[in-house]
Amino acid sequence: MSETNFIHTIIEKDLENHKYETGEIITRFPPEPNGYLHIGHAKSICLNFTTAAKYGGSCNLRYDDTNPVKEDMEYINSIEEDVRWLGFKWNERLWASDYFDTMYEGAVELIKKGKAYVCQLTPEEIKEYRGTLTEPGKESPYRNRPIEENLKLFEEMKEGKYQDGEMVLRAKIDMSSPNINMRDPIIYRIAHATHHNTGDKWCIYPMYDFAHPIEDAIEGITHSICTLEFEDHRPLYDWVLREIGFWEKPPQQIEFARLNLTNTVMSKRFLKKLVDDGIVDGWDDPRMPTIAGIRRRGYTPEAIRKFCEEIGVSKSNSMVDIAQLEHFVRDDLKERVESRNVIFNPIKVIVTNYPEGQSEVCQVENNPQVPEMGTRELTFSRELWIDGEDFMEVPAKKYFRLFPPQEDKAGNEVRFKGAYFLTCQAVVKNEDGTIKEIHCTYDPETKSGLGFEGRKVKGTIHFVDANNCVPIKIRKFGYLMVPSAEDPDKMVGNTDSLTEEICYAEPSLKEAKAGERFQFFRHGYFNAEPKLFNEDNLVFNEIVGLKSSWK
Ligand code: ATP
Ligand code: MG
Questions:
Q1: Catalytic residue flag (residue 62)
Q2: What is the CATH classification number for the domain harbouring 452?
């Protein structure tokens, strides 16, 4: 059960007052099918579905398709996949365009009541007549057209007699209202465009502010939850329902602050441009803040739901640090994925006192925090690879990993996780001064799991066996948007948002399944790239890094 918030308080009061006959709470998630959903939509989805569930009600998925722009089956399929993936089941799947007849009747009703008129001002004139925040608007010369004439013109608009933009239907409310939305808003416009659902039946389409309350009312929505930008539109929402008056128990609109995340632009239009311009590799590019993108990246639905729950619902806009989202992803994966040894920036280790041609099996835990996840086998032999950051030729202060003998101290001894204690004896260089390999000795008494208690070491590092490790490709992601170098308050595209490197992995990663998630020991969480991974292309995405204990 979700925590309580101000929306729940409103609902509980309504239930107490028996505001709705059946007492059933009905919400809806109303996407416009003109792009893929993003993490901001996830917030709205979680809120609508969990709110309905909390009160034993239901939530509809309703396509807000009143705009006959290019609406694509691809978008519709992706929206449904995303809602399901987040773990929610809609009660009904509905289309706003199925209500065009009712909306038309509603508009005719308004005209008959003298509450709407056909206006032939140009779009520029309408804007000019609307006035400003400080100045009242001016009445349109068409405002007092006789009802009969309005009815005739509106019907002719519907029949296709006029061109796009030639005239509109406006609600007759109040040109001097302090709320600009109430200054005779446009409620129908002409658009000779084929609609994906209604085809060429209509060449007039309702505006959002007129259509949305009617959609909600038809479906018996009790609480219509939307983002704060619509707060100033609420008087119009209520006006439409009151004036049309088909409904005894009209829905109520409740606004909450939209989710804003640092380093993230959440606008379908902007994200579509990234796709169209080829800046990213599709809507599901793992760098995208789309639900498809973060799914491919390896985020879990549980982590996203928890994040949406924990950041809460507020009445004032704010910015959430993307690190918080990453925290919930890390936290969710911590106890559910197995660990694997993967070596970044590899350095070769020769165990000089270990016999050539010999190798032995070591047991390592799959997840030290969850012993039930068992162990797996790795091999140890004379030639190993260790991580570049596990060796320093001249150790920094408090560096407990491998370093060779120094003037004032011996070479360091560390535990090779699952195997032995090894001591660094020497570093061997190439002619150009780079490191060729390091030489270590191992102590046969210290094998892991055999209870050696002679002495302790401070550092534990991981390794892979040079005889059987496999090269894998790692893809790491930066944010798509970063502060500009000139002006840190301005966000610009990050030209360095994708880096790839080859690492050496324990052989079991060959058998990973596309999409499977792991912790790469001491590096972070990764998944086998859902679309690209196969046995000839061992490519992994970084889901989220670990917080490093030593930098
Ligand atoms: P965009 O501006 O990204 O295109 P939109 O609001 O136009 O988004 P819709 O398809 O109309 O997209 O939105 C469906 C629902 O999701 C709406 O109820 C909207 O309020 C909500 N929503 C959109 N963005 C956010 C966000 N950042 N945080 C919370 N809810 C959001
Ligand atoms: Mg929209």
A1: no
A2: 2.40.240.10
